[in-house]
Amino acid sequence: MTISNLDSESLVRQPVSLPRWQQALKDAVRDPDELCQLLGISHSWAEAARHWAKTFPLFVPRSYVARMRIGDPYDPLLRQILPLAEEREPIAGYVNDPVGDLQAAVAPGLLQKYQARVLMVTTGACAVHCRYCFRRHFPYSTAPKSPRDWQPAIDEIAADRSVEEIILSGGDPLTLVDAQLAELVGMLESLAHLKRLRVHTRLPIMIPERVTGELIDWLTGTRLTTIVVIHANHAAEIDRHVGAALARLADAGVMLLNQAVLLRGVNDTVEALQQLSQRLIELRVMPYYLHQLDPVAGAAHFEVRVERGRELMHQLRERLPGYAIPRYVQEVADAEYKVPLA
Fold first, then answer.
1. How many domains is the chain partitioned into structurally?
2. What's the rounded Cα separation, in Å, for the pair 292 and 129?
3. Residue 107 has what DSSP assignment?
4. Alpha-carbon span 145 to 151, nearest angstrom
5. CA nearest to 326, candidates 340, 336, 337, 305
6. Quick one: which of 64, 128, 224, 256 could link to 285 by a disulfide (CB 3.0–4.6 Å)?
């Protein structure tokens, strides 16, 4: 049985459907007016956001917007992604490269700050533009764009047999397709001295559909011990869809850790931090780090004083078992490790 020319042409012209997670990235909200309309908040917030987002645009998945409170411009999830006028105020000590990424570069896209581990900046793309991001000014144009471009970094790792762990970061490495990531991991696992693979990602929080069978296949199919470090700052970020995605990873045997940032107006209460830790533990995710805000230009309005952070940690110890309490730390340029603050 043959297909007529007309039928053949119609088949060829059929648009190729994207995986759900890629479609969610494509459909993300980029317009402050649309965001404010969806949330039922004053148009004045959109005017400010449009003005202050010129160098670091608004970008947020619709499923994340759906978790925000309608009519509340101070919702803790909205605060993380809404551009504000305060971003443009120059503040002493707040700089473009607060953690010394540029001076830590040892090859294109490859950073080394600590012994026995290196970090690959795999992409500049993210699933969301967090306004406090410490890499919001990073020169991503210099980072590798394909497996062939990663070869100098692979060669650098191969030459240093003291390196035992590779960290995939960005941007967000899970914005890359699974075939590309599997190819990269295959290149890395051929280096006999590498033992661990760590993936830092916000995708399972922003777009839980990203946790696909293909993703789990390459995470669990490598000889390297895999660790996925997610990034949630508030319990409201973790709805039932996110919970199901994290459960898929945990059921597959992937070690899950969470790192959060202490942010004014988002999670700077003991109740918010307690609820976040409890929700994570329920989902078999270990609270790993609570970071003091990195002093990146444009984010000073998120700062919580270290003294307040220490007070919050003391209150958490009174309420939670030790395994549910994250380490309160700060990343300091040139330091040999994350600096404990409590």
1. 2
2. 19
3. E
4. 11
5. 340
6. 256
